[in-house]
Specification:
single chain, alpha/beta
């Protein structure tokens, strides 16, 4: 089973992905984590990524696509991936579909965590005190939320046309969201 989970930064994608990893023996492919790995290891690509993120922009489709392909092409992860934070635009969604098809896979479900800007800002500020992530501040959070909302509509429409999109109320408690997601997954697993 391959699942896409998306929502604005701070929506809880990582938290819910971790839950799914443990419950369904899947592998979380977080573009945010992949990008932070490059940054933390001070690779040339990491330096470029850091500059892009700190200005509030999104990393290019080409950079993210190369990182994603490494996992899709690995048989260990076949039909066991949670795409956390990818795709973020229609080009990425089509690229993902083509990559999966090339490796005889598909998306089984797309989960959208729906949350308000107010909730995102509150969560990001709370997360900043716990994790000390450089990209967690209110100004950048607002810009990332606005960029996300602008880019995501064509993606949600794309997946909605395929009847894969399930919108989940991300304002609920972590446990309530996890239960709702489990119910959706169990309904397609049969």
């Amino acid at each position: 089973m391959n699942i896409v989970i998306f929502g604005p930064p701070g929506a809880g994608k990582g938290t819910q992905s971790n839950f799914l990893v443990n419950k369904y023996d899947l592998y979380q492919l977080s573009t945010g984590e992949l990008l932070r790995y490059e940054i933390n290891n001070k690779t040339p690509l990491g330096s470029e990524i850091s500059s892009i993120i700190n200005s509030g922009r999104l990393v290019s489709d080409e950079i993210v696509g190369k990182l994603i392909k490494e996992y899709i092409s690995n048989k260990i992860y076949k039909n066991r991936l949670i795409f956390d934070g990818y795709p973020r635009n229609l080009n990425q969604a089509k690229n993902l579909e083509n990559l999966l098809r090339k490796y005889d896979q598909k998306i089984d479900m797309v989960l959208k965590l729906s949350v308000s800007l107010e909730t995102v800002c509150r969560r990001i500020l709370e997360r900043k005190t716990l994790e000390k992530r450089a990209d967690d501040n209110e100004r950048i959070a607002i810009k990332r939320y606005e960029t996300y909302e602008k880019n995501i509509k064509p993606v949600t429409d794309f997946y909605n046309q395929s009847n894969l999109l399930k919108v989940v109320d991300g304002e609920k408690s972590i446990a309530q969201i996890s239960n709702e997601i489990s119910g959706l997954i169990n309904s397609i697993k049969g």
